[in-house]
Each structure stands twice: as C-alpha cells, then as structure tokens.
Amino acid sequence: MKNIIVIMGISGAGKSNVAEALSKSLHLPYLDADDFHSKANLMKMSSGTPLTDDDRWPWLASIVEHILNTHRSEFILACSALKQSYRDYLSQRLSITWVFLDITEHEATARLANRKQHYTQASLVQSQLATLEIPKNAIKINATDKLSSIVSRIELQLKKD
Ligand SMILES: Nc1ncnc2c1ncn2[C@@H]1O[C@H](COP(=O)(O)OP(=O)(O)O)[C@@H](O)[C@H]1O
Ligand SMILES: O=C(O)[C@H](O)[C@@H](O)[C@H](O)[C@H](O)COP(=O)(O)O
pTM, whole model, 2 decimals? Predict the structure, then answer.
C-alpha cells in the first residue's frame, strides 16, 4: 500500500502551509485536497455554504484514485478529513499516518479573514468545527506554533512511530 502522511483539520488550521513545508523537508511530493474539489463544491464554499457528505464522497474518491494512479509510493496530503468515516474511507486503500492540526474557532476565523485569494469563507469555520470528529490515532499538533516548530515536531513523532 502507498504510504501517505495526511495533514488534517478544519479550514484555516494551516494544512496547506504545513504540508508544503513538510514536503520540502522530507523531500516527498505534496498534494492538496483543495485541488480536487468540483466546480460545484467550490461554488458552494465560496458562497459560505458548508459541504455535505454527498459533496465530499466523490471528492475523497477522486483523491484516492489520483494517488493510486501515480507511480510515487509516498505522499504528503493536506486534507480536512473532518469525520472518522472519511478517514476510514481514505484508510481502506492507503496506509495513512494522521497529523491533526488543532486550532480554536477564534484563531481559524481570524486567519481566514486575513487570507486573500482563497474561496473559503471565514463563516465556514463554525460548521467545520461542528463537523470535526477529533481523531484518536493522530499526531496532535498545536496549529498556532511556529511553522518550523510544527515541522520539527511532526518529524520527531514520525521517527518514534
Ligand atoms: N503556524 C502558522 N502560524 C501562523 N500563521 C499560519 C500558520 N499556518 C498557517 N498560517 C496562516 O493561516 C492561513 C491558513 O493557512 P492554510 O495553510 O491555508 O490553512 P488550511 O489549508 O488548513 O485552510 C494562511 O494565511 C497561513 O499563512
Ligand atoms: O471538507 C470540507 O468541508 C472542505 O474540504 C474543507 O474542509 C476544506 O477545508 C476546504 O477545501 C477549504 O479549503 P482550506 O481547508 O484550504 O481552507
């Protein structure tokens, strides 16, 4: 099975930033689940409407298919993976190490309000937190630490596992 490190958490937790930095540090390819959303999903999120399970299943399926169809055997993936059922689905055909970026509503809302050129609305943070089922089997990281400290901590934990 392909080995994937998934950086998960709500919108604004820092998934894309952390996944990109970790990918550089570990010299592994990086994928962002954001790039796999359909136009309909993007329009929904742009208008501040939360996605439903029905919106997310085909999206998650397309990510798995993409990974299985590439020749690389290891990836870093930034993906919200908010519910345990989504994580179970991704784990069916991929061997996954989970990294959970933990962030408060206040901090995530402030970050999204400042983040430019992105479709996600800060108003989605509440529904993202309501949907989030905190993983039990993840490397848990305080998302407000410095990016370099986050990357070092993840690398340390990966060595222990
Ligand atoms: N560790 C961090 N410290 C401070 N700001 C951060 C940190 N990680 C991410 N950010 C900022 O927070 C915003 C959201 O980060 P991003 O990686 O896009 O999150 P996500 O992919 O989870 O939505 C961006 O503007 C980013 O620059
Ligand atoms: O499952 C979802 O509701 C979405 O995938 C969401 O969690 C994701 O976070 C968006 O793609 C926004 O993108 P950012 O996470 O990069 O803000």
Answer: 0.95
